[in-house]
Design brief:
- About 15% of the residues lie in helices and about 40% in strands.
- By secondary structure, the chain is α+β, with helices and mostly antiparallel strands.
- The protein has a 16-stranded antiparallel β-sheet, with no helix packed on it. It has a four-stranded mixed β-sheet with strand order 2-1-4-3. Strands 5-7-6 form a three-stranded mixed β-sheet, covered by helices on one side.
- Strand 17 and strand 18 form a beta hairpin.
Length: about 850
């Protein structure tokens, strides 16, 4: 019997004895002359109810807890007083309950309930843990100052702590809670709690034993339980026991059985036994049943496509192992869209339904009838957009492939989701589609739900190049709006939402180097077709630090402008795009001999670039599927041929007054999800440069510089910086055999394989780790090019994508081969990336 029950009985007896003996209490708490016959209880009307001893509750609420009220007729002694005391105990709010009579007058009785509340929590401390772990545990507890200290509160806290540690594999955790006097005694009825936690050692799974399995080995069944692993030297995962993971793994094991034809497999029983203080074993008793095979597969209800066509698409033959998950994936869950359901839904059959039914089970063979309801074709009625707080509706709608009046198509919806993710304005994990069909009308409204995320970037970085530190400040507005520029209300803080891109960038090292770039892109020129227009201007100055007018001043000034256009293609498919543009650059050299073959003069470059690209990547930040490639040609006019001049004995100033070259490049990347979110990325890059006139030869401009992060260096002569981690920046670059200066390569290749795994896909901070292997090289002439002569490296790193700064990263690479252009360089290199995509 609970302590409260004992107190209730004692209080009732004391109350009865007071009335039976008519004792006189201290002061006037009892009527001094009242005498009652215990054998004859009397009836009274409650004339007054009072409550004392409470600090945190409303007295009127406590009176309601008693169930008594003024004017109520009660019997004294009787059940009403007992019931009132029981009601108060049931609230579990008090540690002591007493009932006293303060007065009896004219048949009325006046009662006083003297109560002692449970103490309140002042603060709590956690003992037995290091400071960091105690802080982490404190954040997970629901315990708060001011809570009433009850047995339930203590038990709840113990359960929360045990759950916290059991989830981490500590099955032997011990928790004790003690009440202590508070350090601050100003407030009444307060207590502190001292929580002693002893996690013990982590409990590991020593063995997992299966009983009753003959078709599948223990090893295969253990592999089917990814989160519940027995201790092994060859496993990188900890063998901790977590109950909810274990329950899920048992379901996965049965699902694995089903994929192998064991349709009737089930777990008969399982048990966990202790091997030692920190080791447990698991025994699972299974019933496999017979192994089944597909026999006859028939179709019913199909009128649009013949059964033979559907058989071919299904791809399951008589005698194949019975696997219901394989059947379902071919019917309506194929990731590549080659299932039967996609065939119908891509042709407007939104109301299509398909159900596989087992019609006969005979020995080890199963007959399947696939019952279909094709229904009418559905037409898109409305396309709705919700969740876009910054991006204009028309910017989203122009990327969506489902249009009002068109037939419903699931592949169009999937492509629309991919295009919205590729914009970079929305969280790709939160893009959702809600079809709202109207069967009676044969239509469907489609709602696209998006969630905006920051996409503009600020670049603030530092790098080392040309012998000194260079600072960079850049602003990249990816969702700009020129239309809203002249409306003051739209500056919040900048006009945005129309999908235009504006980039401003400046680099400087004071008087030695300055560079300024500005570019603008309109992705939908005219607003009706996906045809882009981009314009950029750039201006850079590099000197030896001497002021203007100083005869020792050396300088090079480069000014240029680029105009480009691009458009999406429909053939071979609408993932292809074609871009083309023209760039003019003017080089003004004054006593500048460290870079070019002439020190003073002017050089011009007018080049045309055309590129064919295909991009089917699912999203830009952490792609998991798809591919992208670009084949481009960049060339200048053959001025030397058009002029008719003989350049055999021409000076370098004459040869390079107008720069000549043609450059061919190819880049490709593939993204494949292996398991869960583990992604394999494969990349290949090639570049070749040629010349028109053998007397002029290869242009000293627009060459390739390979090595390092591919980000450090000055792009004064149009050079392209190619990354090859594990080697110094730009170190894999041919040198002039006479001067020893780097002159750049005219042919290169690079191959990369990366394994990526995300730590966080939160749009505010996307983080993933990677391991890589690379190989590549750079060559001084086309005859020297050998695709099999490559420098190899491998390493790992981490990437953090912050919307305001772009991609930040740190890699460590180790180069395995001797660099022929810089034999003394170190083989291990750290590479840091900021504000750039790698």
């Amino acid at each position: 019997m609970r302590l409260g029950k004992y107190v209730l009985i004692v209080c009732s007896l004391l109350f009865t004895m007071q009335w039976a003996n008519a004792q006189v209490g201290d002061g006037d708490t009892l009527h001094p002359y009242l005498k009652l016959n215990y054998q004859r209880p009397a009836k009274y009307i409650i004339g007054g109810l009072e409550v004392s001893g409470i600090h945190y509750f409303d007295p009127n609420i406590v009176k309601l807890f008693t169930g008594m009220y003024i004017g109520q007729e009660i019997t004294v002694p009787g059940d009403e007083i007992t019931d009132a005391i029981e009601n108060l105990w049931q609230q579990k709010l008090f540690t002591d309950v007493k009932v006293l009579v303060t007065k009896i007058e004219d048949g009325k009785i006046f009662l006083l309930f003297q109560l002692q509340e449970n103490p309140r929590l002042s603060e709590f401390v956690i003992r037995g843990l290091r400071k960091g772990k105690a802080k982490s545990l404190r954040e997970e507890l629901s315990l708060r100052a001011g809570d009433m200290i009850t047995d339930n509160l203590k038990q709840r806290t113990i359960n929360e702590i045990k759950e916290h540690y059991i989830d981490k594999g500590y099955l032997n955790v011990q928790v004790e809670i003690a009440e202590t006097e508070p350090r601050e005694t100003a407030r009444k009825n307060m207590k502190d709690l001292e929580i002693h936690v002893s996690p013990g050692t982590r409990t590991k799974i020593e063995e997992i034993v299966f009983v009753g399995n003959s078709g599948l080995s223990d090893k295969k069944l253990r592999k089917a339980m990814p989160e519940t692993r027995q201790k092994s030297l060859f496993s990188f995962k900890r063998s901790k026991f977590v109950e909810f993971n274990y329950e899920d793994d048992k379901k996965q094991m049965i699902a694995f059985y089903n994929t192998k034809g064991y349709r009737d497999a089930r777990i008969l029983s399982d048990s966990i036994y202790r091997i030692s203080d920190n080791r447990i074993g698991i025994q699972i008793n299974v019933y496999e049943g017979p192994k089944y095979y597909f026999r006859n597969i028939t179709w019913s209800g199909n009128t649009k496509y013949r059964s033979g066509q559907l058989d071919t698409l299904l791809g399951i033959k008589r005698g194949d192992v019975y696997d219901i998950s394989r059947l379902e994936s071919r019917l309506y869950m194929s990731q590549n869209g080659t299932d039967v359901s996609s065939l119908y839904m891509d042709d407007g059959y939104l109301f299509f339904n398909i159900v596989p039914v087992e019609t006969r089970v005979e020995n080890d063979s199963i007959d399947i009838e696939i019952r279909m309801t094709e229904g009418p074709q559905a037409t898109v009625n409305k396309v709705l957009i919700t969740g876009n707080t910054k991006t204009s509706d028309y910017v989203i709608l122009r990327e969506i492939r489902t249009r009002p009046g068109h037939k419903f198509s699931r592949s169009d919806i999937q492509r629309s989701v991919r295009e919205l993710a590729s914009l970079g304005y929305f969280d790709p994990e939160k893009i959702d589609v809600n079809p709202m069909p109207n069967y009676a009308a044969g239509t469907v409204d489609i709602e696209y739900r998006v969630e905006e995320r920051p996409s503009d970037q600020i670049e603030l970085s530092g790098g080392f190049g040309a012998g000194f530190i260079v600072g960079t400040l850049g602003l990249n507005l990816t969702n700009f709006s020129t239309r809203k520029m002249f409306d003051r209300r739209q500056w919040t803080p900048i006009p945005s939402g129309d999908g235009q891109r504006l980039s401003l960038r400046a680099q400087s090292n004071g008087s030695y180097f300055q560079s300024y770039n500005a570019s603008f892109t309109e992705p939908w020129l005219g607003g009706k077709r996906p045809q882009s227009l981009s314009v950029s201007v750039f201006h850079s100055i590099q000197t030896n630090g001497a002021k203007k007018g100083d005869p020792n001043r050396q300088s090079i000034v480069i000014t240029g402008v680029t105009v480009g256009m691009g458009r999406l293609l429909r053939v071979p498919d609408d993932y292809f795009s074609l871009s083309y543009g023209m760039t003019y650059q003017r080089y003004l050299l004054s006593n500048y001999s460290s870079l070019f073959t002439f020190a003073t003069g002017i050089s011009h470059s007018l080049n045309f670039r055309i590129a064919l690209s295909r991009n089917s990547v699912d999203q830009p930040i952490y792609p998991r599927s798809g591919s992208q490639f670009t084949a481009s040609l960049q060339l200048t006019p053959p001025i030397s041929f058009l002029s008719g001049k003989n350049y055999e004995n021409a000076t370098d100033q004459e040869k390079y007054n107008w720069i000549e070259y043609h450059k061919w490049k190819f880049e490709a990347a593939w993204y494949t999800t292996l398991v869960d979110k583990l992604v394999l990325t494969a990349q290949a890059k090639f570049g070749f440069m040629g010349y028109y006139n053998k007397h002029i030869g290869y242009s000293p401009f627009e060459r390739f510089y390979v090595g390092g992060a591919g980000l450090i260096g000055f792009n004064l002569d149009g050079r392209e910086l190619i990354a090859l981690r594990g080697y110094d920046n730009n170190s894999i670059t041919p040198r002039n055999p006479y001067t020893g200066n780097t002159i750049g390569g005219v042919a290169y290749n690079r191959f990369t394989a990366e394994l990526r795994y995300p730590i966080s896909l939160n749009p505010q901070a996307t983080i993933y780790v990677l391991g890589f292997a690379e190989a590549g090289n750079n060559f001084a002439s086309l005859p020297e090019y050998n695709p099999f002569n490559m420098l190899r490296s491998a390493g790992g790193g981490v990437r953090v994508y912050l919307p305001m700064f772009g991609l930040l990263g740190l890699d460590y690479g180790y180069g395995f081969d001797q660099n022929p252009y810089n034999p003394g360089t170190g083989k291990g290199q750290f590479h840091f990336f900021i504000g750039q995509q790698f």
